[in-house]
Amino acid sequence: MTALTPMHVSLDTPLARHVGAAPLQRQLHDRLKDAILDGRLGPGVRLPSSRELAQTLGISRNTVTAAYDQLAAQGYVYPDRRGTLVATLARPAHLDQPSGSTPPPVLAQRIGQIRATLPVVSATASLRPGMPSYIHFPMAAWRRALDSAVRQAGPSALGYGNPLGEPALRAAIARHLRIARSVRCEPEQVIITEGAHEALALCVSLLSNPGEIAWIEDPGYRGARSAFNGGDLRIEPMPVDAEGMVWHEEDWQRRPPRLIYTTPSHQYPTGAVLSVARRLELIDQARRHQAWIIEDDYDSEFRHVGDSIAAMQGLVADAPVLYVGTFSKTMFPSLRLGFLVLPHSLAQPARDALHELLRGGHRYEQLALADFIESGQFSRHLNRMRRLYRERQTALREALTEHLQVPHVIEGGHCGMHLTVRLPAEYPDRAICAQAQRYGIGAQPLSVFNLRPGARDNGLVLGYGNTSAELYRPLIQRLSRLARGQH
Predict the structure, then answer these.
(1) Could you give the 3-state DSSP secondary structure of residue 429?
(2) With pLDDT > 90 as the criterion, what percentage of the chain qualifies?
(3) Max CA separation in the chain (angstroms)
(4) Which of 38-42, 111-115, 205-209, 327-331 bottoms out in mean pLDDT, i.e. has the lowest?
(5) Share of the chain above pLDDT 70, in %
(6) Closest by CA position to 214, among listed 105, 283, 292, 109
(7) Confidence band of 6 (pLDDT split at 50, 70, 90)
(8) Residue 246 φ then ψ, to 5°
(9) What gap in Å lies between CA 202 and CA 196, rounded to an integer?
């Protein structure tokens, strides 16, 4: 056994006593702990007695005793008839390696499939896709709904809620979907999620096994791609044309899917609408091949021409369709509330698993949203936003036609909050967008939405939801100069 002298760990160095310094007990504890972990205090070394160390440092004996007791509680030292001894610890591997030789961490193989395809873009950047208009959100009405939820629910809503979501919100969503989107559902089929991404992850967990095939639109939503990669699925990109996702009979034979992800009412990002003929065929083929369709209805509440296009889920009874929705576009992204509508045949079999996979949270927000919907505030807000986004899309189309002085084709349909502009390959979209960021423009390159980009998959995805129409002319002029190599 080795006795410790104060110089072993600089215990003769005074502890800090200035204003803002850590308590003396914590300083002493940390000094001894660090010495044990880095090997300066080896196993079996006896620490000074509490009286001796207190006198050396000029602190109270109680302070030393408390530090020793804390170290003993954590297993760094242990009391012995000979005094307080350093415990035997496994030597950290990094102490035996030369500096800088630590190998990089090894992540799960699936993580290698999940890569950042876009640079981080400020939420306030102009023309960034997927951003609703914040300044037009009815904050006063939302605050009243929140205040009412807090008053009525009281402290009880601070605890865990129903894992499937607050019953009031599930009922409100079911009623709204039946009227607004022609979705066939009852409240017990509605599952509240933390946004659309969690809904997609639930679909993967409930219905697929590692190695099974998932079809995804190409170009398509990157969040679906990451959810499928997270489930170790084999992703098969499916091309998109003017009528939406394209498939052939041989695809069902050679690469039959377990899951099929589609945005039929407003394909993201091209804006194509999946035709009724293809919808019916997809449902029929999915039934015959025991596949499940995930319908992401992310922004089709904002239809700018004619009546809204009904959801595919309600086209035929008991379709093998899981309907995913979110309030990130219709309300605001930080609300982090979405929903998943399960087919009636799945709702009961999946109930036990869902109770284990989910935890009820955001309870006041859920209750406030239920009131916001039932009171009519949500419908009024949607109507206002439809008018606003319709005006902004028209203005952006005009600005592109007049001021984008390079060859281009405007896509994006007449729905939602973005337009897609295809460019010839000699105007590389990633380079243009990288330059645009320097000017606060959040346009995204079309090519990053493709799993297998080709020469045609080059262009700009422009969001108009959170950018005022009076800014379109100078913004498009700037993009035009950047595309032509001018700054």
Answers:
(1) helix
(2) 80
(3) 90
(4) 111-115
(5) 92
(6) 292
(7) very low
(8) -115, 135
(9) 10
Residue 410: strand pairing partners: 421
Residue 19 phi/psi, 5-degree rounding, is -60, 130
By residue count, the chain amounts to: 487
d(C-alpha 393, C-alpha 330), whole Å: 16
Which residues, including other chains, have CB under 8 Å from residue 386's CB and lie 6 or more apart? 301, 302, 303, 304
User: What is the distance of C-alpha 218 from the center of its chain?
Assistant: 20
Task: For residue 276, give both structure tokens.
Answer: 């009724």
Q: Give the whole-angstrom CA distance, residue 252 versus residue 120.
A: 38
Q: Which amino acid is at 287?
A: R
Half-sphere CA count of 98, side-chain side, radius 13 A: 1
What is the rounded CA–CA span in Å between residue 305 and residue 102? 59
The token duo for 32 is: 């001894």
DSSP string across 78-134: EEETTEEEEPP-PPPGGGGS-TT-PPPP---GGGGG----S----TT-BT-TT---S
Cα dihedral sign, 116-119-125-128: negative
Q: How many CA atoms, within 13 angstroms, populate the side-chain half-sphere of residue 177? A: 28
Residue closest to 307 by CA, chosen among 420, 386, 240: 386
Instruction: Please state whether 165 falls in left (phi above 0), alpha (psi between -120 and 50) or beta.
Output: left
pTM, to two decimals: 0.85
* Residue in this structure with the two tokens 């087919």, named with its chain if needed: 343
Q: Do 103 and 58 form a contact (C-beta atoms < 8 A)?
A: no
Integer angstrom CA distances of residue 57 from 17, 207, 212, 267: 12, 64, 66, 71
Residues in CB range of 399: below 8 A, 6 or more apart = 472, 473, 475, 476
Q: In b/e form, how buried is each residue of 353-380, taking b as 16+ CB within 10 angstroms?
A: ebeeebebebbbbbbbbbbbbbeebbee
State the chain's mean pLDDT as an integer.
91
Q: How far apart, in whole angstroms, are the C-alpha atoms of residue 404 and residue 77?
A: 72
Which regions of 342-407 does DSSP assign to beta strands (E)? Answer: none
- Over residues 57-74, mean pLDDT: 94
Adjacency order of strands within the sheet including 259-262: 190-193, 338-341, 321-326, 292-296, 259-262, 213-218, 234-241, 244-245
Helical (H) or strand (E) element with 374: helix 363-374
